[in-house]
């Protein structure tokens, strides 16, 4: 496919890009990759380009001030044939339909040399300022490229700008035979002259450089023949060298540069000794080294961005410094587990039966409320179960403030849903959340089968957190805690962050061991009712209830505002038993359902 070549006054003001057939391209000073940032005479949107076969249709945008010149005259609309050009400001745009192929029949070199990295380190630039100025732009070139295609375009332009004697340059990649029909793939190339001899990179030179992991130079014509008329197209270039790009992020990549020797009019060689090419080879190796390092960083950033959907930030930070096999290996540790369930899902499923995608979107947003706060507090997302999610703290690194972090996350979820409920027009207004939190030993890490694994936590404490979440319906409290968590909150969490009250001693359905269940509440400043005085009434009522003094318990419970739904659990239980405890009363309420 034809390419468009832009060339400004300075050598570095240049690019070569392949035109997409049948698609419109907007060319200007600030418009995507088809930008000409170096020329102030080019408008932000100057012309529209559209390729038809091998001819390029060029249309100037109305209102653009600076003219477009074609064949010496100002034009608004025209077609460009291969080899022709148009001019805007100080930049020439040329349509080139050149083909480049890797040749396996390059002439035998008259001189060949390999360069180790250590040897090139000792080579000094005779004109370091220009080289350093070009190299200083490389990080910006790589970071600003949206993909490998644009990266290759920018890098080849830099090579030609930094190597004045180079006539052509390319980024190539040696492929495995099974990966590609061509053994050497040309990622991008450019030639200083639009109309010139064919550019055919030598496959032998490329393979030798990549296999040896060293820069390799081939000289086909010596200095003495540099000024003589070339007898064949294969003699269009006197020399070429190839520099492999280090690192696994650019596996098989290499920089290929070729050019000619020059002579002064007097016939005296002008920097035409093959030994002088060492400076160019060193420059190419510096570019290749920076490319390998910066592209590796870029791939790591992309990989981390992708992994962030699967791993919590605390896990990614640990993986960055420690062996993944060690970090993710299952091990027993003390964890605090938060189990979160979305209420209202069944009701909304019936309402949204005709628009399941909208329901899925809203459920995802509702689950995102919990996952966002879990991650913010340094927790790990352990699993999703339909409309439920589980997070935990205490792994991969021990967290002395795990209970505090869990508490903050749970209260933040409750607060956000309460705020949403006050906005009837909000898409999540019909959803509520129930949360159960338990603390204890568990096995955390990479858990699963030989076929599939996931990072999660395993053990009775997880089941207990799930059971506590299920009890929030019966006990009419949004957040329930087991006794180890509740005790830790009383010891470690300031009252301006959270409050705790015991609700009851229950025996969960299907279990034999009684469980002291407590409620996690926001501080008084955020939740005035129940007040601390009301919590005192409830604690006294619970003590009387456990001791069998149900009359006193019933009276104390009525000192608590009706808006406090959690008191209804004991109030209703006492009323159902005619305010008299059973003869075998032991203070434990057996739950009949999960």
Q: CATH-wise, what's the superfamily of the largest domain? A: GAF domain
Flag low-confidence runs. 224-234, 264-272
| Whole-number mean pLDDT | 84
Helical content (DSSP H or I, runs of 4+): 25-40%
Distance between the termini: 67 Å
> How is the main sheet built?
9 strands, mixed
Strand content: 25-35%
How many domains comprise the coordinates? 3
CATH architecture of the largest domain: 2-Layer Sandwich
CATH class of the largest domain: Alpha Beta
CATH fold descriptor of the largest domain: Beta-Lactamase
Query: Helix count, per DSSP?
Result: 16
The whole-angstrom Rg is 36 Å
Given helix and strand content, the structural type is alpha+beta
Q: How would you describe the shape?
A: elongated
Question: What's the number of extended β-strand segments?
Answer: 25
Please, could you describe this protein's structure?
There is one protein chain. Helices cover 33% and strands 26% of the residues. With 594 residues, it is of the alpha+beta class. The strands form 4 sheets. Strands 17, 18, 19, 20, 21, 22, 23, 24 and 25 form a 9-stranded mixed sheet that branches. β23 (499-507) and β24 form a beta hairpin. The radius of gyration is 36 Å and the shape is elongated. Mean pLDDT is 84; it is low at 224-234 and 264-272.
